Amino acid sequence: MGGLSIEERRRVEDIGFMTCMTLVLLGNYAQTGHFGGPLAYTPFNVAAHLVGPQRGGLHYDYRRPKHPFGDKFMMAAGHSVPTCYALYMILGQALERKFKLTGDKRYYADPHVAILPVDALGFRRGAGALKTLLQDNGLADDPLFDQAKARGIKALSGHAESIDVTNDVNGGPSGVGIATAGGKAAFWDMAGAVDAPKIIALEGEFAMTEGHAQELKTQALALKVGKRLRVILSDNNAGIDDVLLGGVIDRKFTGYNLVEQWTSYGWNVLTVEDGGDYGQVTAMLEAMEAIDPSDRRPVIAIARTTKGYWPAASNGQLTDKVSQIVSYQSHPYSQKMNSDYFVALASTFEARYGIEFEGIRKGPAANERERLIQFKTNIDKVMSVFERDGLGDWLADRLVSLGDAVKDDRDVAFAKGTDPFLDERLDPAKLPREPVKVKVSNRISGAGKEVSIALFRKPGEAAGGRRAISEILKWMNYVTDNRFITLAADLSESINVEHGSLWGHYDPETNPLGTRVKAAIQEAGNVASAIGLVSQSASIDPAQFKGVWALSGTYGAFTPLMYTPARVWSQQNQDSRFRMGVLHILVGHSGPETAADGRTHFGIFAPQVWKLFPRGQVIHLNFWDYNDVAPGYFAAASIAARDPKVGIIIIEVARPDNPVADRSKFADSDLLAASKGLYVIRDFAPGKPKQGYVIAQGASASVNLVKILPRLEQAGVNVKIISAISEELFDRQPESYRHSVLPPEALYDAMVVSTGTRRVWPVRDLGPLTDAYSMTSDWDNQWLTGGLEADVIAEAHLDPESIFKGVTRFAGERDTRIGRQKAVLG
Asked: Can you give the pTM of this predicted structure?
């Protein structure tokens, strides 16, 4: 019986049946959601939460589910979250019931943290609608809904989100959720945590065919996470609208074998014959727990399951007349309210526990008010099983016992001290202006050495913006004691992150203080691991961060592969109740300058995806000069370390080693000018008619524009030239500065010179004629061809001669431009 006593197994199975019935009630009364998948995962979900860490279950505290030293539970199969909601309601109700009976504070769970039975009404509903749901239906004072008075009804999403009690993943899209698991596990190795926390992640065989999920196979093995990562794969050969073997894959291809797929990638693979049997599920958890900690292979258990599983089904039948709906046909909850199939399911629960659901045999509820009453009444009917054989008391005591074992005083290196990313040495004003040699010591090995760091270089030195990336990484790791991790495929050297690590490559066994993770060419997998790393913190205080920041990068042209995981991460960061780390995306070799590699490698359109976030939640940096990188980056880092809203910093740099600019000739000669987001390279000549504003962004565009400044002067062209490093940094400057650089009227009197596209401008709200005069890589709405860098820049019309002609035309036609706009408005 898998280590469970007869009584324990009976009680765990009772909680499992309650969970199945509750999630079916969610589907029945919400008339939406998923059905077969959540049922199949229920035995894993329930066993993991109840059997205890000694048997390989979760080490957690329901009352403090986000405790840093609790195990991380991942419902990566996001659509199956109804099994989690159902179980969380049951666990929350058990504690609330016992607290009300005894007044013992050990049983108290903050209702703002817990999910309770009344939250069933919030399944797949928006928070706005729920605010007045009861009031609109005359039920605000009905004692049936008393639980809502404490904090309202929670909105429960259709897919798993990290705000959901123990769940630690936004699960669902394209295998993104499970792909972060390797990074989460690696974090705790880096943090110096022995044994716990571990990560238990649930996913299905169809989702594991997705690219992000496939890349986890290599990611987790490369990170050597061992049994700290435990994946449970539900193998029921059923997807959304087809089967895998015998459907997507013809059965004649007998070599398509899930176990062999994972063993061939070096994983430690266990199998479970019946994933619906609590004895076998518990034995699987125990087997994972018993694995030698020195075995650094990640662990996966592949368990045969039934999509559409039902605890009381027998030989495919619910009753003599009703057959069980299984496989992909059970994927959605597609039954009408109180349908015959639902009644058949409910009748087996009624028979098992001697209860009777209200109104389910009278057809659908007549109106919304009746639906709400019947919904909550029947949820409470499930909870009434707690009064049977002491089940409620047993569960509450089990939860308290599990929770009390989670302690605050773990000896974890990252938990000590304060947030290193708040160190004043990271302030742009405190950065060393000259190259320095710093002494570093390895707190694990005791070794020491000197490291050279050059955050700024002399004018004229051949060093493009990308060359400064390794230097800001070194400074960050020097100040934070090696808390900045990089994962950048095998082109780490090419995009200049290789030398940002003070102690070389990370290896949990031989070099745990290394910060450069050896990574495969897996843009999606690398960024997912980086997200896993920054999603963890060793801080007991939710307002304080004690973890790592991470960077993943590649050619700008390939970074869209990173976008979906980063988008989901941004959502998770926005909603998190505790501080998390900052994800960095290095958009390397951006722009048309990546010429010799061919146009498949041009980062012209692709980097624009990094603008597709809610304003203020990312900081986008586009550097053209070496000396802009440190002040611009550390200004962004200073904001991100203090503003929890900012979860991503995007750094865009190009390949060429252009000479470092001579800022003594700029209108704004401040070495730290980039920290302000936009700064003035050339101001209007006083006493002459102003001919417009030129906004420059990108390496070749800016460098070649600066080259023609003497020609513009000689030709009497009176334009103001502004370097656009970051609109987000500029937005945070005082209004007086913003208006001195780019006043509101300038938006209708501007052109852009950019290595990017005419589809996305460096600043918002530019006027209607901006496109007609701007100079961008897509000036003719064609893909560029290829050749040497100079060839491509000329084809893009971003060479000095083309820029001079374009700016001269823009300035000379100012009266026409302004007149046309006035005429339209008139």
From this structure: 0.96
